[in-house]
Amino acid sequence: MKFKTTLLLFGIFILLFAAVYFFEFRSQGEENEDDMLISFASEDVEKIIFKNDGQTIQFQRKEEEWLITDPIEAKADKYEVNMLADDFSNLRIERVVEEESSDLKKYGIPQKEIELYTKGQDIPIKIQIGMQNPLDNTFFAKKVEEKRVVLISSSLKSLLEKKVFDFRQKDIFKFESDQAKSIKLKAKGIQWEAEKEDEDWFLRKPVNALAQKNKINDILFALSNLKAKEFVSEEKKGEEIKKYELDKSDYEVAIDFPVENRQVTFFIHKKDDKVHATSSISPKILQVEDSILSDLEKEPGDLRDKEVADFFTWEVKKLQIKKGETSLILSKDDEENWHFEEPALQEAVEEKIQSFLRKLEALESEEFMDPPLDLAEFGLDVPQAEIKIWTGEEEETPEELTIQIGTEDKESKKVFMKNKRFPYVFKVDSTFLEDFPGRAEDWRRSPETEKKEEKD
């Protein structure tokens, strides 16, 4: 009897638990309509009118973009206007203050007003917003067609305080930097030109040399992302160009986009503590951050790529070394182990090869010797050594890199080197030559080494 009673009570408990869980889950999973002042898809908003302390701002959606149509005509910051549409198309009620109010002035309604026009609707949804509740900083608000006064989230404060400038697109000079194929810079005491070949950038003036790709890309990125601190002119005219001294700008940067068949030129000038900028394809003059100047003040020498050889050690598949009577050819097998192809001397000591390649990969020039030059002056007419490196995946055509080693100054520990890809000569630290194999046996894996590794 006691067992049956216990079983019955347990069954009732399970039913009660299931009922409580079900209703609790539903209350959490479903949005209670009474908790929402407005709820619809923000993607349906096509037009917004925001009245803020006497100023009216009007936005119009154009496909995936937003435009400001009043009080000015300008591109809007898509992120800022989307946030306005998102927050006010799903507006939660924090608390109902009055079901029916006869005195809206005591709530400061309306200090601000939002009108949302949705697809296919001529009559907007209007929300009037008043002052902040001093108790918890929420805002008093009212939907125009309703009588009740409610409180909405205090998190809307920053959005409600935005002005026209805050909603404007500020990077109006933006361009696709990866489409740029050449760049020319003129500044006080600085002048250079660079051109893109495949994925590499080359300086063409004042010297023909490989440039540091990341530094050229940084300049392009900085120009493309110039943001307005202030719009000082909407339609620049001759007197305004002179006023901000952009007719004699400190920096003039011309960028070519062959695919688009256009050239964009930037004019940037600093006067006192303000930097102003405009471009050849924009009628506006902006005040911008002075951080752009640090990118534009680089000398051509600062832009040169100092690496003797651009490769990654782990990508090397084959290596040839010639020095005096020594000639070695080594390659990796399918298991990534190094072995000799010539002379056929079994497996090679991988640690020595990797160390040599890593030092070669890290070599940077301390000084450049540019054409015209006499290679015999640097011992490169008949190099004392030559290194060939093949890189790439198995399914790709291997890329070949040839490096020549010339005269070494043992006192200063410097050596002249030449990458056959370039017309100039590098002067580098010669300590890497200590890893250079004097003969094939230096890199040969001996039976004693193999036995020791097996034992370890």
Major β-sheet strand ordering:
5-4-3-2-8-9-10-11-7
Q: Main beta sheet, described? A: 9 strands, antiparallel
By DSSP (H or I, 4+ residues per run), the number of helices equals 10
Mean pLDDT: 90
Structural class: alpha+beta
Radius of gyration: 35 Å
Shape: elongated
Strand content: 35-45%
Helix content: 10-25%
Q: Which stretches of 5+ consecutive residues score pLDDT under 50?
A: 19-31
Q: How many E strands?
A: 28
Short description:
With 456 residues, the protein is α+β, with helices and mostly antiparallel strands.
Report on the structure:
- There is one protein chain.
- About 3% of the residues have low confidence.
- The protein is built from ten helices and 28 strands.
- It is α+β, with helices and mostly antiparallel strands.
- The strands form four sheets. A nine-stranded antiparallel beta sheet has the order 5-4-3-2-8-9-10-11-7, with helices on one face. It has a nine-stranded antiparallel beta sheet with strand order 15-14-13-12-17-18-19-20-16, with helices on one face. It has an eight-stranded antiparallel beta sheet with strand order 23-22-21-25-26-27-28-24, with no helix packed on it.
- The longest helix has 28 residues.
